Amino acid sequence: MTDQVTFPDAVQWAVPFFIAAILAEFLWISIKGRGGRYETRDAVTSLIMGAGNIASGFLLGFIAYAFFMWLWQITPLNLGTSIPVIILCFVLDDLRYYWVHRLGHRVRWVWASHVNHHSSQHYNLTTALRQTWTYTFTFMMVVRAPLILLGFHPAMVLFVGGINLIYQFWIHTEAIGKMPRWFEAIMNTPSHHRAHHGRNARYLDCNYAGVFIIWDKLFGTFVPEQDDDRVDYGLVHNIGTFNPLRVAFHEWVGIWQDVKQPGLSLRQRLAYCFAPPGYSHDGSRDNSEQIKAKHLARHPEDRGTPGFEQFDAKPPNAQAERA
Amino acid sequence: MPLEILLVLVVGGIAGITLLLHVTGRSRLRVLTKASAQKDWLRHFPDDDVIDVTISHDCHSALIRTNVGAGLLWSFGADTVARHLMDFDWLEHPKGLEVQFHEFGVPRVVIHLDESERRHWRHLMEPA
């Protein structure tokens, strides 16, 4: 199936808006003295990561596009390019984003690409641009395959993906507190996404949504930002470099160093690649469940509160006494 | 968007924002006190018990003794980064000591120490 369908590269056209919005946020913070903070090297690193993301799209984007066009050749379906189809594509692509993002936090191979987005200890509009250079190597483009096989043109799928990323730009701010209740209920907002960027035990592995927060509510990963647990941004083990090359590749290097350790079984080597971040064959590291459990050992009063619902509201010794 | 315009926007945008942040004082390194260093250490390693804290004279590095061994905390822009001193090398440096962690994301840290501090820090950094 071949036809000429073109959509604009929305992310490129949004670049002037990104710059203007960053200046506006900085001005707001400077005047008000609240609503976030900026640090020169942190912001520059984020901006260079953003530029590198666009460059990696130019250099490696053809791999995903060739794959999508091959799928488009073999599918007998073509839903066209009407407005309702574009809207449907946008919603389904946002569901696709949710799962890719969730895998990005739960599979170390994908985390190696996504980790750099979380590597800043700041949370401002430049953080939104701290994007991966290595997404192609995660092979997560396969998650878009069902959309194209269903008859959504690859150019449209990429277009709505770009709109999705542009939407997510403005939610990377502390300058906006909470949006109206109806909006917070349906849409991803600065508040929901701040929680996603938290390294606090409570906020690990939550709020994967791109545009619609309903996916997190549907799949049980929603944690609302808590007034009494201020979000601490960054990684569980923060990196100590502003060098964009190190930011982009540090987790890939970490995987390699772990995998080539002598004396490991094949299963252990594979686990270092694909298990959730924090896996170690000797138990020397903690994954997010273990971090949450340790937090609850120190703060039993948090048991059963948002972000800790998977742990019983009663501590284990209380259960034993009850039994 | 034509590539040359995109390039001008990206390069100009990054340069302009960098200049703006620098001239408005956003390049200052975090200054540590004993209390803030202890608080920051527990932020990085909440399971540890801090025994004592030694701050460098420039207030940008802190040696933390904990129940699980010594650790280094240092200013990283407006924030801090911390590591236990387990897998590392140290070298003499004209400004003090250079600590090299065998970690791609934390390549090295230069600790500014005067002559009297150097010996003390070297002693504290030795494995127990």
Task: Describe the structure concisely.
With 323 residues, chain A is an all-alpha fold. Chain A has 15 helices and no strands. The C terminus of chain A is likely disordered.
Task: Give a quick set of tags describing it.
heterodimer, A: 323 residues, mainly alpha, 15 helices, B: 128 residues, alpha+beta, 2 domains, 4-stranded antiparallel beta sheet, 3-stranded antiparallel beta sheet, 3 helices
Number of helices of chain B: 3
- Identify the overall geometry of chain B: elongated
Estimate what percentage of residues of chain A fall within beta strands: under 5%
State the total count of DSSP E strands of chain A.
0
Enumerate how many helices of chain A there are, as a single number: 15
- The strand line-up of the biggest sheet of chain B is 1-2-3-4
Which stretches of chain B are low in confidence, meaning pLDDT under 50 for 5 or more residues running?
none
Describe this protein's structure:
The complex is a heterodimer of chains A (323) and B (128). Chain A is mainly α and 323 residues long. Among the domains of chain A are: 10-191, no CATH class; 286-323, no CATH class. Helices cover 54% and strands 0% of the residues of chain A. Chain A has 15 helices and no strands. In chain A, helix 4 crosses helix 5. The model of chain B has no long low-confidence stretch (mean pLDDT 95). Chain B folds into two domains: 1-28; 34-125, no CATH class. Chain B is built from three helices and seven strands; from the N terminus they run H-H-E-E-E-E-E-E-E-H. In chain B, the strands form two sheets. Chain B has a four-stranded antiparallel β-sheet with strand order 1-2-3-4, sandwiched between helices. In chain B, strands 5-6-7 form a three-stranded antiparallel β-sheet, with no helix packed on it. By secondary structure, chain B is an alpha+beta fold. Chains A and B meet through helix 2, helix 3, helix 12 and helix 14 of A and helix 1 and strand 4 of B.
